[in-house]
Amino acid sequence: MLTAIAHLSGQGIMVSSGLVGGRSAPALKGRFDVATALARVLAGTGLRAQRVGDGFVIRTAIDRPPILGQDESTSEEARGVVVTGTRIRGAAPVGANVVTIGRREIEESGRATTQDILAALPQNFGGGPSETTPGFSARNNASANIGYGSGVNLRGLGVTSTLVLVDGNRTALGAGSTFVDLSLIPSSAIDRIEVLPDGASALYGSDAVAGVVNVRLRDTFEGAETRLRYGIADGFDEVQASQLLGTAWQGGRLAGGYEFYRRGRLGADERTYATEDLRAFGGPDYRQAFGNPATLVAADGRVFGVPRGQDGRTLAAGDLIAGTPNLTDGRKGTDLLPYSRRHSAYLALEQRLDADVIFRAKGFFADRLSDARYLPGLTPFTVTPANPFYVDPIGTGQPVSVRYDFRQDLGPFRLRTKVRNVGGTAGLGFSPGRWLVEFGGAYGEQRERQTATNVVNQFRLAQALADPDPRTAFNPFGDGSHTSAATIERIRGGYRQTGTSRVWSVNAKADGPLARLPAGDLRVAIGGEYRRERNGFSLLQDQFTAAPIDGGNAGFPLTRAILAGYGELLVPLASPDQQVPGVRRLDVSLAARVEDYSDFGTTTNPRLGISYEPADGLKLRASLGTSFRAPSFLDIRGGPGLDQVVPFRLADPASPTGSTPVVALFGNDPDIGPEKARTWTVGVEATPAILSGITARATYFDVAYRDRIYNVAVDFQSVLSQRSRFETLILDNPSAEQVAALYANPYFINPNGIDASAIRAIVDARNANLARTTIKGIDFDVGYATGTRDRRLELGLSGAYLFHIRQKLTQTAPASDVAGNIGNATDLKLRARAVASFGSIGAAAFVNHVGGYLNNGVTPVEQVESWTTLDLQVWHMFGADKGALRNMRLSLAATNLLDEAPPYVNNRTPFSASGFDPEQASPVGRVVALQLVKSW
Which of 15, 62, 197, 728 is the most buried (most CB within 10 A)? Predict the structure, then answer.
């Protein structure tokens, strides 16, 4: 009967054969929701069905877990697996809403990669490290993404504020230990993704401020599955192939898989909006005067354009075009998406050593290569009369400043990256009576290497420009490349930066019943963890010296040790068996975690959760707790290469000259500590019996986030023009002694030659615990499902709506609402679904909507239109009687079926410009993919 209910409803029902063996069930006839059907079937058996995630677990009414020696391979509780949001086996997280993306939803989405699957999640904001943001944004550590990885950014609070786990374990991080690279996880190996959009540091420790994303792999897979996928879009194609194998025997199982993925590069030339010249869209022209042919700036500041159609060898001053610079589009010939090739594999082993002892081990490996054509370096250089091709625009014989595009000489500036991630876990579980005690350890390592080529070596260029021999001198005065190949090779430079992240951990945990209460067992989970994290960095530099040199380690390697202890208590206060009027079920959970960090001290975070069911089909829930984020290694490093004291002239509307000389401090504040947050949620879940098949969930959330680490250098140029925001960081009229002390600082540099006597202010632009953020909003999901697994219809709408994101950059700054502003999450994000299957054929359609927002990064502020796309997939499943085709699924999928271009955005960035915003919309366009999945 349980099998029949699972088959008809399409929902997972997990049960130990030891619990139901030899039992019979009454007949069931009529229309019921799954919970009601299970309650009727289990009435009088001493068993009950408990919802866990999107499925059900059948348990004894007295909560007694099955014995490990029994055949409970499908029992989540007996296998020691817990749902994200709790540490207690087999229990649903109290007071929390867990969004589960199951294997079926992954297949129906038609999306190929893990990062693309999570990109469709309404709670996820695209800002931060991803494959599309390098060169477009420095926000949320996007510029530190040397491996071209992709993170997840719940609520738009930053990738560092979202904790990502793999099978409940922390893994090595990338980009200076700031985020887990989702693109390394093979999507074919995922069983489900559990997303807890709620503060959870009381359970998991640092980073779980906006929530937790737990990727569960297919550890219990049995049989064989072969997958082949080919996708094509305008400008690139992609190939995906995988093989899964799994087997089980008495007391054990082994499962593993391998996936290959390759995607071609997507060039900016393939998309009209990927340009610095936005005039075609009604915007400005951001092209710069670094052209080929070049732009010359004479000693008196006048600008001249080098004419086209000549080689620079007979150029005269009269040939130059006065007042007309030669502009170049920095985006031309660059990539919006890099070429990418990945291998990944995993292996999971489980073996019972005796009736009460079980051993588990898992291993993971991933290797990815990327290759991107990046934005060219734009640095003017000086040419003196010593150069045999020198042209004097004004006839004074003085040096001329040249703005020149080297790409026709050197080729495109290229970034090649290699990322390798390895990890493993192992542990023993003991079952003394009704308790489970576990001991385990884990290790993870990620290595990233980025190699830049076709970069100008400024030292060797200066030599080539001063060379009087026309055969070997560098010639920047022609149209195209008119310098000898040997000289071009001589000025060709580059650099290589390497990062390494390692994490070791050992842990112990016990959970089980403490006492019997009228409503059920009082259950507890207690545990401890010791973890060591290490991050290293090195740089080989060939840009500014005659030969490559060691560029230093920028203050790395850095290491920290963390000792943590936690506890969680589940208190059932009322159950259906008690028949309390107005209270069908009432559960309370209490959790707390204490962590001691070797580099900044101790933090304690509690959490309270309440789940209340006044009637069958209606649940009310609430949670309240605190969370924190430990500073990343990028936040705490210091020393040469990072700390700097630099004089500048900043724009200042209060100055009669329009600018004020200041001396600025850059780097990290040595007193940086953890970020802290208070989070609370209130939610409702309804599955009304009178509306069979209808489910509705809504959660109101409130996050007060303080002591946020903020890098003032991002807004440094506007510090004096926005005094109300940065008042506490500005010291006006410093004494001569204060300025002298800064000028004597070992990290002082003065590229602009500003005298100490001219300084009128000191600006502290160091990374520090400055900002406060308050975010409020609502998550919701409404769905309707009917039919059986073979003949099924499902409709639904999920979304996230933000009431506001109030932000203060400093303690005294006024608060501003940044929700719906560029660089932040939009007010509204929706995903509608419609899935239908009729025997062997089926179809799934999804509508994705990103609300419009304001571009306040330009003046005047501009409105950005909303973006709506349609995904569609159709499939055919060949039955068991089809010979070689049996158990084969053939599907055709199209993401962004209508090829909707991203909305126009006047997107001026510190690096360049473009006509779209990759944090909110993808430049990929329509992707059509054919996929074959064969089960053996």
Answer: 197
